[in-house]
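A quick word before the example. In earlier lectures we treated sequence and structure as two separate objects. From today on, think of them as two lines of the same record. Here is PilZ domain-containing protein written that way.
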Amino acid sequence: MINKRKSPRKASLERCRVELYSSAKGPFESRVVNYSDTGLMIEMDHPLTKGEPVKILFRPGDETARRIGENYCVGMVRWCAPQDGLYSSRYGVGLEMAQASACGKASRAA
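And the structure line, produced from the sequence above:
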């Protein structure tokens, strides 16, 4: 399998919430599966649309919030796919973080 990733991923199972800029629905409970310099993979039970802007909220004091010095980051949905398995959420979602987003600092600070 060819790896098309720009940056290495780091594993995580930290809980977060997802707010949608294009909808009043939410926030939706989620968790970070992995992260890199430029993005996150999250799991959630609500499907998202490719290109949709989102805000990812971390709980104050959680590892990610401490690492980036912020309680949130912003980005865009790059893909969303159904997941199989009894112990995961219904959808896996790939997010590209905004270049100026604090979340981009996450792996540089780690």
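Notice the following. Residues 104-110 have pLDDT under 50 and may be disordered. We will return to this example when we discuss secondary structure assignment.
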